[in-house]
Amino acid sequence: MSAVGTNTANGAPAAGAPSLGGLGGILRLGASRVLYETRVYFRTPDTVFFTFLFPFVMLGIFTAAFGAAGNIGENADGTGGISVGAYYLPAMLAAGILLSGVQNLAIDIAGEKGDGTLKRLGGTPLSPLSYFMGKLGGVLVTALIQAALLILVARFLLGIDLPTEAGRWFTFAWVFLLGVITCAFLGIALSALPRSGKSAAAVVIPIVLILQFISGVYLQFYVLPEWMQNLAGVFPLKWVAQGMRGVFLPEGFASLEQTGEWDFPMVALNLAVWLVIGLVLSRVTFRWIRKDA
Questions:
Q1: Is the pLDDT at 240 greater than 80, yes or no?
Q2: Based on the structure, what is the number of domains in the chain?
C-alpha cells in the first residue's frame, strides 16, 4: 500500500500526506489531475453543453439556416463553391478550442477560487505545475474528443468532404495542439480577472463572444472591415481559425485572407507568442488564495 494518501474528491494528495518530491512526483500528480478534470468536465451538464456541444449546435444552425442560399464562393453561373456547412466547419473547430480552453478554464478556476477549492489544494503537496498539468491535460483530452466527433458529424451527417492529403492533416495536428495549449494557458490567466466565482461567467463570456465575432467564427472573415480584421489579428483565435480554414477549405479560398494566402508561418508564430504570454501570465497571476480574500 502506498504511504501517500490521496483525496479522491479533488485528485490531490490528502492534507498532511508526505510531499512527493522530484519531477516524477509532479508528473504522477499531474496525470491523476488529468483524469480527475476529465471526469468532472463530463459530469457537469452546463459545461458540456456550452463548451462541448455548442459548436455542434452552431454548425447545425448555420447549415440549416443558410444552406438554401447556395454555396459560398460559387461562380456567377452557380457552379463551384462549397456548402455553408463546409465553410463553417473550421470556424466551429476553432471555436471549440477557444471555449474548451479559455472560457471553460477561466470560469472553472475562478469558481474553484470562490468556493475554497484552491485554498484546500494549497494545503496539499500538489504543486502549481501539477495543477496546471491537470487543467491542460483535461482540456487537451476533451478538445480532442470534441474535434473528432465534430469532424465525424460533419462527414457522415452533413456530407461535408474532408481533406485527403496527409500534409493537411499534419497541419491540422499542429494548429490544433498549439491552439489548445495556448488557449488553456490564457484561460488560466483570465481566471484571475473575475472578482468572484459568481461573476466569472459575466466577465468571461462577453470577452469570448466578442473574439468569436471579430475573428471569423460566426461571420465570414473576409467580409469584415479591415480595421476589425486587424484588431482580430492581435488575438490568437483569428490565427487558429485561419489555420483551420487552411486545412479544410479549398486552396482557392486563400485569396480571401488578408495576405491572399494561408500564411501558416504567421499562424505558428502568433500562436507561439500567445502561448508564451499565456504561460507567463498564468504563473504570475495564479495563487491558491486570492490576495483580496
A1: yes
A2: 1
The arithmetic mean of pLDDT across residues 139-161, rounded, is 95
- Give me the DSSP letters along 74-126: --TTS-S-B-HHHHHHHHHHHHHHHIIIIIHHHHHHHHHHHTTHHHHHHTSS-
Report if residue 75 sits inside a domain.
no
Whether 13 and 127 have beta carbons less than 8 Å apart is answered as no
pLDDT digits (tens, 9 = 90+) for 148-157: 999 999 999 9
Is residue 3 in some structural domain?
A: no
Length of the chain, please? 293
Rg, C-alpha atoms of the chain = 20
Helix (H, G, I), strand (E, B) or coil at 4: coil
DSSP labels, 28-61: HHHHHHHHHHHHHHHT-HHHIIIIIIHHHHHHHH
Residue 267 is assigned to a structural domain of this protein: yes
Predicted TM-score of the model (pTM): 0.88
User: How many angstroms separate the Cα of 10 from the Cα of each of 34, 102, 111, 187, 224?
Assistant: 11, 21, 14, 20, 45
Residue matched to cell numbers 474528443: 145
Residue 216 to residue 238: CA distance in whole angstroms: 7
Question: Does residue 275 contact residue 182 with C-beta atoms inside 8 Å?
Answer: yes
What SS3 class is residue 7? strand
Residue 291 forms part of a structural domain: no
Q: Are 152 and 55 in contact (CB under 8 A)?
A: no
Backbone φ and ψ for 72, nearest 5 degrees, come out as -90, 130
pLDDT in tens, 167-184: 999 999 999 999 999 999
Range(s) of the domain holding residue 280: 20-66+83-285
